[in-house]
């Protein structure tokens, strides 16, 4: 009988977890497919924009799609040597005049799984309304989504469509998250076939070796999880915490913070029922702070309550990411987040939830509903 992540397929179907499990497991293959996407047309669109020294790049999305931008922004700032900011669509829609206070040439990069949520559609329109010079790059998993359709034929827009498999059927974004991170990295930071292969190989190792460990953690009865990460991995920590909240329908409370900021109050969350997952940066300078926090945590919580996810050798019980010790943190986030996805899946199952749809009553929806978009009474500056 076929198995997936330690379960047989019929069992996963009965548990309401088959789609989510498949979408976690398929990610190495999806990444390799993204690496083979033709990018010449998009590169031609971006080339004159990236040659402009005054160009501001804003990475936007809502929820998990916003965390795509938070993971990418630090890496792209380094690679491009320019302003790259992550600003959620929910912030843009709520206060566009603050988000676009500077009327400078802007490339708005919109990340969206479905491309049908109200904020995904409204944020680009507000940017074009408020800014004199604005271009759009849409990275989406849904060719039939309204966002992709609206920008498909605009001269000021380019659309990057991910493989259909990246458009997750499950409630929580898994392969859609990593797919959009990878597509953003390759499109804006430079294409790299070798990198894609290395990331996929590291992810395959995690998928082969960590499901049982994730199930063991879930069986211990933790009711709180803290994810720690610095720089680009802070965005990863935020996404990891959201996965636990979503997949357990709030049954496990999750918090995210940077290593340095955790001492300033959030550390109060620690108790005997708290699991801490620390992502170690690949940057030699930044990783010093991550390791300092791990050493501090080991003085106040049992070692079994701490998981370190790292590409470097260290603690014997760390969750290792092999073969990616020299990639930047935005790339490192791809195999690293699979650890969080496995933890979220197994915590969900341990609590009796149905991961494919943790909210069968419709309290929270796969595509956000109910948000009313109010018109902005502000003329375009042109």
From TrEMBL:
It holds the Pfam family SIS. GO terms for molecular function: carbohydrate derivative binding; isomerase activity. One of its GO terms (biological process) is carbohydrate derivative metabolic process. Residues 46-195, 214-358 form the SIS domain. InterPro entries: GatZ_KbaZ_carbometab (IPR050303), GlmS/AgaS_SIS (IPR035466), SIS_dom (IPR001347), SIS_dom_sf (IPR046348). GO terms for cellular component: plasma membrane. This is Galactosamine 6-phosphate isomerase AgaS. Keywords: Isomerase, Repeat. PANTHER family: D-GALACTOSAMINE-6-PHOSPHATE DEAMINASE AGAS-RELATED, N-ACETYLGALACTOSAMINE PERMEASE II COMPONENT-RELATED. It comes from the Bacteria.
């Amino acid at each position: 009988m076929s198995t997936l992540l330690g379960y047989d397929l019929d069992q996963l179907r009965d548990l309401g977890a088959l789609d989510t499990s498949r979408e976690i497991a398929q990610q190495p293959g999806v990444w390799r497919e993204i690496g083979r996407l033709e990018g010449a047309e998009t590169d031609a669109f971006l080339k004159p924009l990236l040659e402009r020294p005054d160009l501001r790049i804003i990475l936007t999305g809502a929820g998990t799609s916003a965390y795509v931008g938070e993971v990418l922004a630090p890496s792209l700032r380094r690679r491009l040597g320019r302003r790259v900011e992550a600003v959620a669509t929910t912030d843009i829609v709520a206060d566009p005049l603050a988000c676009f206070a500077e009327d400078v040439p802007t490339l708005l990069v919109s990340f969206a799984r479905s491309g049908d949520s109200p904020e995904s559609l409204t944020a680009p329109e507000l940017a074009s309304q408020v800014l004199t010079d604005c271009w759009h790059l849409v990275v989406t998993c849904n060719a039939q989504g309204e966002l992709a359709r609206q920008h498909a034929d605009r001269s000021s827009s380019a659309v990057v469509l991910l493989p259909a498999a990246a458009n997750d059927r499950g409630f929580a974004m898994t392969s859609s998250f990593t797919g959009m991170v990878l597509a953003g990295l390759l499109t804006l930071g430079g294409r790299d076939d070798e990198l894609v292969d290395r990331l996929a190989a590291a992810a395959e190792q995690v998928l082969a070796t960590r499901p049982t460990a994730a199930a063991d953690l879930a069986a211990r009865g933790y009711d709180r999880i803290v994810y720690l990460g610095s720089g680009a991995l802070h965005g990863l920590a935020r996404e990891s915490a959201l996965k636990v909240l979503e997949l357990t329908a709030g049954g496990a409370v999750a918090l995210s913070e940077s290593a340095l900021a955790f001492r300033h109050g959030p550390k109060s969350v620690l108790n005997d029922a708290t699991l801490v997952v620390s992502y170690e940066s690949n940057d030699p300078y930044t990783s010093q702070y991550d390791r300092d926090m791990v050493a501090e945590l080991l003085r106040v919580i049992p070692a079994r309550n701490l998981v370190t996810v790292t590409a470097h050798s260290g603690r014997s019980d760390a969750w290792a990411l092999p073969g990616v010790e020299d990639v930047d943190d935005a790339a490192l986030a791809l195999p690293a987040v699979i650890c969080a996805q496995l933890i979220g899946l197994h915590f969900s199952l341990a609590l009796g939830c149905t991961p494919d749809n943790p909210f069968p009553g419709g309290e929270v929806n796969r595509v956000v509903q109910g948000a009313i978009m109010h018109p902005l009474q502000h003329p375009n500056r042109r």
